[in-house]
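Researcher: Quick one. two chains, 681 residues in total.
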Amino acid sequence: MKKVVIVGATSAIAAEAARALALDGASLFLIGRNSDKLERLAGDLRVRSGAEVHTAAFEAHDLHGASRVLEQARSALGEIDAALVAHGDLPDQRACEHDWAAAERSLVTNFMSPAAFLTWLANYFEGRKQGNITVISSVAGDRGRQSNYIYGAAKGGLTVLLQGLRNRLAHHGVSVTTIKPGFVDTPMTAHIKKGPLFASAEAVGRRTAKAMRRGESVVYAPGFWLPIMLIIRHIPECIFKKLRL
Amino acid sequence: MNTFESWGRFPKLQNQQVLPLPSPHNALPFPPEGRTVLPYGLGRSYGDSCINNGNAIIPTAGLSCFIDFDPQRGIVKAEAGVSLATILDVFVPRGWFLPVTPGTKFVTLGGAIANDIHGKNHHKAGTFGRHVLSFGLLRSDGAHHTCSPSENGPLYCATIGGLGLTGLITWVELQLTPIQSPYLDTRTIKFRNLDEFFDISVESDALFDYSVSWVDCTSEGDRLGRGLFMAGNFSSRSKRKKRPNLALPFPCEAPSWLLNSLFMRSFNNLYYNKQLSRTVDALTHYEPFFYPLDAILNWNRMYGKRGFFQYQLVVPFEHDRNIIKEIFRRITRSKRASFLAVLKTFGDIESPGMMSFPTKGVTLALDFPNDGKPTLALMDELDSIVKDAHGRIYAAKDARMSPEMFRLSYPRVGEFAPFIDPNFSSSLWRRVMEPA
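Model:
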């Protein structure tokens, strides 16, 4: 992968993935909300690897602007070999239950906005007949739970969208990778008490870069979430609904 | 998972709040009313200099970006939470090495300054602080100072070795050292007792940029202080085979009976006899040469729940060899020493830091498993010998020295204190500043 565009590049996982990709010699186009943070990360990547790094500030809620910023990435890089879509936020579930505006914001950030980017990316890579699209979804999307079902619904929708996209693009030589992290120690989870299930952003970021290089399909990160989620997904609904998860 | 303990896991944490660093990093989080804050890097300080019980810490892991690099001069500028391990990963392949490194690479740039760390090349290069060209310091009044020998000089000198108390170090500009290869030409010389150590040290320190000795603290009589003198210079040769980069975690907390004196004696015996001939020359990769213990992550768990103490002293060279011998006699007699005892001669290169520990003389560092009162009594006994010899105890590793011993170890503390940020403190600082 020589030329990679990263959406939500300053998120902790994406930044670590960017470091791994830059060390491999990739040129990067970083898209994120805050231009100061983007420049800070770009500077870091240039020192670490001497990589060519471009940046563009972009607001995730501007759904119609997604294609424009991706066109900008294509003209800056010349062409795109792979894309990582990594933006998202963890909403306050309680707030989402009582306030539709909060729920809507979360659905837009975690589902609609990635979907908007994926529309352009899918068509671009379909035409190119090669490449990789990787998206950070979540184990939260594997089953709805009372503690975060708005976030879970957005990520679950994203996971299903990626299944369909993977199926569509497999016929065109393009791989679509769904990364499902569990708990990751990032600014997004700074307010949550850390337990043994937490992984570092560095570990998940490196795993993401590896999955992109290999063009894997679905990756739980770290891998121990695969058996955990297998069990969670298979608990019968009549029992599951009584659990406090 | 990060628990924000100290490396020695003594004293235990009590009611310590964790305050996230605001982003962007242009202001400090305020401590709760009447409380203080302390920056926390990778928690490799052994004692209580990196904890702030009953108060708050600010983890610096988010300060993880490089800012600039000058490939002609080897000057790197990075945020203060960047670890020495990361610097090695990025710059060794380009032919640059750290100017000074401690025995672990898992420390941050900020921590390296705050403790003004030293390494195997102290006799040639002095402390870490000497190679810090400038740094940024964020104070709780909101001011962001650039500190260098020529700009904010007094604050620069107070912060180097300043135990993290003068404010949050945000970025660091560091002079790296050129190397031709990641390998060193090393020499290991066996010494049968302390007299031999002193003779070898005098001869060999001139020939080698890096030197350190491992000492057996369990043998007595004419074998008192026997050990291995390990020295090296960066080589111009290289090996073709790539080293596997493996670090294994120490699996669990060891039971406290494991490290008994019989086990220690056997280990020390085996290690001393690992080479038969007196001198062995080799080509050694920098990782095992500088960081033998980093191959086992969390090795501190080996000491079990009660944790352990590290004790590091320095006594001036002018005094005769009998002081070090006396210290060794007390330690071997106590049968409390562990296997990690190192001996080194410091040179006379001065640090800019007011609170820098190293001074010309012989330094000894060793671990004591925490067995409560008898361990503390032994260290007090050693303190009194160090005191009589006009020596010092290293605060970055300490969890128990008296306020009096601290003042003797850090004679410029009176000059330093006014530079402390009013919102900053640490468990160590409150302990050693207690009125006698």
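The domain at 3-240 of chain A is CATH 3.40.50.720 (Rossmann fold).
Researcher: Thanks, that's what I needed.
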